[in-house]
User: Fold Acyl-CoA dehydrogenase from Candidatus Pantoea floridensis.
Amino acid sequence: MSQIELGWGADPSPRYEQLAERFRPVFQKIRAGAIERELTRQLPIEQIAWLKQSGFTALRVPESAGGLGATLPELFNLLIELGEADSNLVQSIRGHLGFVENVLNSGSSSYRAKWLARLGQGEIVGPAWSETGDARQSEFSTRIERHGDGWRLNGRKFYTTGSLYADWIDVGITDENGKGVSVTLARSAPGVTVLDDWNGFGQTLTASGTALFDNVLIGADDIKEEVHFRYSPAFYQLIHLATLAGIGRAQSGEVAQQVASRTRTYSNGNAPRAAQDAQILQVVGRLRGAAYSSGAIVLHAASAIQRAFDAHLSGDQERENQAVAIAELEVSQSLNVVSDLLLNASSTLFDALGASATLKPLALDRFWRNARTLSSHNPRIYKDRIVGDFAVNGTLPPEQWRIGVADKSAT
Assistant:
């Protein structure tokens, strides 16, 4: 059935249904094993391979390079559908999707050609940027040092989401002059170790743990200046919101199925079956309303990010500056609305069912755990302040930000 027939609203483009039909059988296969993987902690290595083979990871890659040339609204709508199947999968390729976007925005034609060829073949790139502990905001503890005609990379990263499933790892580093640079190296390169040590209570299968780099040899040509596409904060945040919208669809669907099949009911209820109980139906309706509203918000914000991308391609600096600021503003305005909808819904869903809904085999708790984990990224408490500052003072949102120990000069 089409998105409209399912009640999720209009497609983001005239060709969307044709594009989505290519992936929906894959999504169904992924969803079929989602609960078992959650309960037994099976990493979705095979499922990531399905996405690669289907062309999903090359959605934004131009058709001329072997991709599908999807627009950003098309991409985000498909991420919602994938998130409905298994939210772990969306987050696992989040860093890859950002890398693709960085390549598309690159001003170097040779760099674009090299990487679009790899990405068009389905190769995946994982992130290794975040550091924990005493890492500073202004620089990375992960370093490169000269070694003959090349360089050696040493360091430790965390939150390397999806890198365990990737062919390449994009690493943020500081060079010997204190300058921020990056290098994208093969995950199988000698000295590279990716650990399955993510122990968060949510999004448990995203491989968001540690990557170690021990004297990894890299060539001088592989080092590039640390540059992020300008709408990257909004883009990365909107992937989280798309994942949340997918969680909303999944939990509303699973609860509806449970209610429809439920034969036990309470003597003080409103009907002989839960499926006929007006109060139970009201709870299910609220779950679905949260999912619908979240998806609609994500698609609207995706159009703002598309405008930022289009403005970049136009070469009009003033137009790009405005489009980037507005995209960040729109996503910031969306964040707490979407996260509150899903956090509330993932708790309220148990009101539609009996105590048996808390039994582990149903894994209904995963929805709240995953929603809570996603909502803890990129602190949402700051987003309302940023939006309020714009509304009251006309202050534009910050484009880029870093996490770490603040420099003394900043305290």
Remarks:
- The chain has twelve helices and eight strands.
